[in-house]
Design brief:
single chain; alpha/beta; 4-stranded parallel beta sheet; 11 strands
């Protein structure tokens, strides 16, 4: 996999990795530049009870002005909701939009730097539900919202929850509606002759795949495509490589560098999709967009539709 970090960290997509590695899959087959502004400390305005993924309402200062995000998809959501200027720090993998590149980086999912976060004096920290740092931040009196999007419905909920925390209720739902419209338009562009094609979408060369129940899988379904990885195997399972060979997908999708190496994997030269070039390789930047459940999901759908349009225009050997 290109890059120096595991895919689930680079993408900001935790995706229940422990579950994905648990064994069900192995049984599937043999073998504008934001400004931090002056340090004013946490907001002293009224608090709002907003329910995050942990259940009980969380006390969040109304319209927080100093926000730290510890997941790229949450960073992107804040910016898409026109609040990028409120960000004072992000995780190291947040790289879109360009405005966040110059912000202080405070670690990642597993190694968030507590002291650096505290020094930024945030009045809200947005984290994944599995982030260990959440409890430590709350113990210091820093408001935290833990939010995860493992499905398209989750993504809609997360967007609206972030919008409410920003003091802009309804903006998240409106953003999700616009994304839905782009997905529908992208689906209409998939050639009729390719609808129902069975896709292998590789997440990592281990190989991990995007299964039918993942948000990537749901996106493929919305585009009229099928998936070689059934929902029963979980959202992002680690597969026995022979499972892919046996499944013989109609289309293979992966990071370009990994796609180029696939024929060299034991048995994979027999994949018809590879022999007939029924595949789509993505740059790392495009790939990260595809596997981040956030405001660029509509654009991701268009990218997948473009892939299918291109395959329809390419005659089989």
């Amino acid at each position: 996999m290109p890059g120096s970090a595991p895919w689930w960290r680079r993408a900001g997509t935790w995706l229940l990795l422990a579950t994905a590695c648990g064994g069900a899959a192995q049984a599937a087959g043999p073998g504008a530049s934001p400004s931090a502004g002056p340090s004013t400390g946490p907001s002293t305005g009224p608090s709002t009870g907003i329910t995050d993924d942990r259940g009980p309402p969380a006390a969040v200062a109304a319209a927080p002005r100093r926000i730290v995000t510890l997941l790229p998809s949450l960073t992107e959501t804040v910016c898409a909701l026109q609040a990028c200027e409120r960000l004072v720090g992000t995780d190291r993998y947040s790289n879109w939009p360009d405005a966040v590149l110059a912000l202080p980086k405070v670690g990642g999912l597993d190694d968030a730097q507590l002291e650096r976060i505290v020094a930024l004096k945030p009045d809200l920290v947005l984290v994944s539900g599995s982030a260990r740092v959440a409890g430590r931040l709350q113990a210091l009196g820093i408001p935290v919202l833990a939010l995860e999007a493992n499905s398209l419905a989750d993504m809609r909920r997360v967007m609206e929850t972030v919008a409410q925390a920003l003091g802009r209720p309804g903006a998240g739902t409106a953003l999700a509606d616009r994304i839905d419209q782009r997905i529908a338009a992208a689906g209409a562009r998939v050639p009729a002759a390719l609808r129902g094609q069975r896709v292998y979408f590789e997440i990592d060369s281990a190989p991990y795949a995007a299964g039918e129940s993942s948000f990537v899988g749901e996106l493929l379904t919305r585009l009229g495509l099928a998936n070689i990885v059934p929902a029963a195997l979980g959202p992002f399972p680690k597969l026995n490589p022979e499972f892919v060979v046996r499944a013989q997908p109609d289309v293979v999708m992966a990071v370009q560098d990994d796609l180029a190496k696939m024929p060299g994997r034991p048995g994979w030269a027999s994949l018809r999709a590879l022999r007939e070039q029924r595949s789509c390789g993505f740059s790392m930047a495009r790939y990260e967009m595809l596997i981040r459940p956030g405001p660029r999901t509509g654009e991701a759908a268009e990218l997948l539709a473009n892939c299918m349009v291109g395959l329809a225009a390419t005659p089989r050997p």
